[in-house]
Amino acid sequence: MGKIKLSALDLSVVTAGGNYQSAIERTVEVAQHIEKLGFQRLWLAEHHNMQHIASSATAVMIGHVAGKTNSLRIGSGGIMLPNHAPLAIAEQFGTLETMYPNRIELGLGRAPGTDPAAAMALRKNFANKPYDFAPNILELQSYFQNTNEKTLVRAFPGEGANVPIWILGSSTDSAYVAAAFGLPYAFASHFAPTDLMTAISIYRKNFKPSKQLQQPYVMPCINVIAADTDKEANRLATSIYQMFLGIITNNRRPLQPPVDSMDGLWDLQAQATVAQMTKYTFAGSKETLRQRLSAFLEDTQANELMINTNVFDLDARLHSFSILNEVFE
Q1: What is the pLDDT of residue 162?
Q2: What is the pLDDT of residue 265?
Q3: CA–CA separation, 185 vs 203, rounded Å?
Q4: pLDDT score recorded for residue 1
Q5: Do the beta carbons of residue 303 and residue 5 sit within 8 Å?
Q6: What is the residue-wise DSSP string for 174-233?
Q7: Distance between CA atoms of 248 and 244, rounded to whole angstroms?
Q8: pTM of full prediction above 0.85
Q9: Which residue, among 94, 12, 100, has the nearest Cα to 61 in the 3D structure?
Q10: CB 329 within 8 A of CB 319
Q11: Every domain of the chain and the residues it spans
Q12: CA pair distance 216, 154, nearest whole angstrom
């Protein structure tokens, strides 16, 4: 356990009674806290047309959080490449890397991170873009790697920038892409657990070494809520369950305070659906988490864990990260 690196994902979720400013401030607090704990990285994710998520301008957020921290690697989990011209991403992340050398990372996703109408608003010709994922990655890499001064289109800043690229996935499709490009692979098992084991197997079986990476590197993202007791951790986790319930019922709200029981908030069908979506949600005390996460690591042979911790109370959220860090010390 002590050899596993820990990182965090943060969507800058708006809490009940809060606003976008407080959500962004909470993200900064989390980043500063996990930096002190020795976490490797914090990633922000691109979502659009979602009222209670404040990280839609992901590159802007990355720059803000990087400016409020000192050594923590800050990146995207991810930038949804179909929404953007590769040149624009190369320029944005080349600029970030110029401002914060050796601290910026670029995780790429193949989905729009939104609904079809918003996807069309972002890029009018979106229809075929998810299927251009691999060519767009090649184009993006070419801007970072270009050494030919006669190239007609170049990224400034961007050329020669040290921006590690990761491939993100929530299905098996991205596993083939990550393997073919020889890039590290992050899987969104915190909300899409079904294909995790199959995707990892595909990635490792088909991996081809690259200049960036010689051996497969897998980082699953999971939900973890730690507290002093199992009872308190399970209570805090009800905020996540309410969030997923809102997703499946299309009744999305800001992150809600925890409740003593979910009884009366969901029916059996909704409970089963949320349970499936949150399969890789680990709530408990230090001892409980040590046992459950050890088994998860045994099953996945993960190289690193990315932790998503949607806890309503900020102090309880920071305490959760502290307890988790003790689990892996």
Answers
A1: 95
A2: 97
A3: 8
A4: 74
A5: yes
A6: HHHHHHHHT--EEE-TTT--TTHHHHHHHHHHH----SS-SS--EEEEEEEEE-SSHHHH
A7: 6
A8: yes
A9: 12
A10: no
A11: 5-226+281-327
A12: 30
Q: What is residue 130's predicted lDDT score, i.e. its pLDDT?
A: 53
Tokens, residue 321: 């990260």
Q: What is the pLDDT of residue 119?
A: 79
What pLDDT does residue 125 have? 66
Pick the CATH number of 5-226+281-327 from 3.20.20.150, 3.40.50.410, 3.20.20.30, 3.100.10.10: 3.20.20.30
3-state secondary structure of 25: helix
From residue 320, how far is each of 50, 163, 274 by CA, in Å? 26, 30, 22
> Within the chain, which residues score under 70 in pLDDT?
124-131
Tokens found for residue 224:
């973890």
* Residue type at position 20: Y
Specify the DSSP class assigned to residue 278: T
